[in-house]
Amino acid sequence: MCPKPKDNQNFLFTSRLEQILNPEHPLFKLADAIDWSEFEKTFGELYDPGHGRPAKPIRLMVGLHYLKHAYDLSDEDVVGRWIENPYWQYFCGYTHFEHELPIDPSLMTKWRQKVKAEGMEKLLEVTIKTGLKTGTLKKTELKKLSVDTTVQEKAIAFPTDAKLYQRMREKLVRKAQDCGIELR
């Protein structure tokens, strides 16, 4: 189910985020440059209007995942820091400063499971399109692929003190035998 808009009467006497934030801030610019409707089209069909409680806004979920990866944070940390940062709130589509957590951090995992790998690829696709549109990314930079394999599993046994001592003892025993020294 797509989320219902909030009642804006509570915000009658408060300033809108776009009025108090610096429009030159990178997240402010990025929030205005991203085509959020692409996410609505892609992920909107995953929401069933007659099933369960009303869903959280798609832009909020996409924005939180972008911030999570951009700042290398855990689900708990990104949700916790969202409440402190008006730029993050603006980026996620909020018009007024919020004083409550937007979601429970466990909802981020559930949302990733719902959108699957294809949904996360859509996030990357829109990020690349936005980078090309804003000029922060050039087409020539996409021709070369760099792969970081530092976290890839390798069949390397790292030496421990016990292994090193054992190998040293074995070599010393062999050397002693070669020299004719009798050991106990």
Tags for this entry?
184 residues; 8 helices; elongated
Task: Give a written overview of the molecule.
- The chain is an all-alpha fold and 184 residues long.
- It has one domain (8-142).
- Helix content is 52%, strand content 0%.
- The chain contains eight helices and no strands.
- It has helices at 17-20, 26-33, 37-44, 58-70, 75-82, 86-91, 106-134, 161-179.
- Helix 3 packs across helix 7 (106-134) and helix 4 crosses helix 5 (75-82).
- The N and C termini lie far apart (78 Å).
- The relative contact order is 0.12.
Which percent bin holds the helix content?
40-55%
Low-confidence stretches: none
Mean pLDDT: 87
Structural class per helix/strand content? mainly alpha
Number of E strands: 0
The 3D shape can be described as elongated
Q: What's the structural domain tally?
A: 1
Distance between the termini: 78 Å
Task: Write the topology of this structure.
Layout: H1 17-20, H2 26-33, H3 37-44, H4 58-70, H5 75-82, H6 86-91, H7 106-134, H8 161-179
Helix pairs in contact: 3-7, 4-5
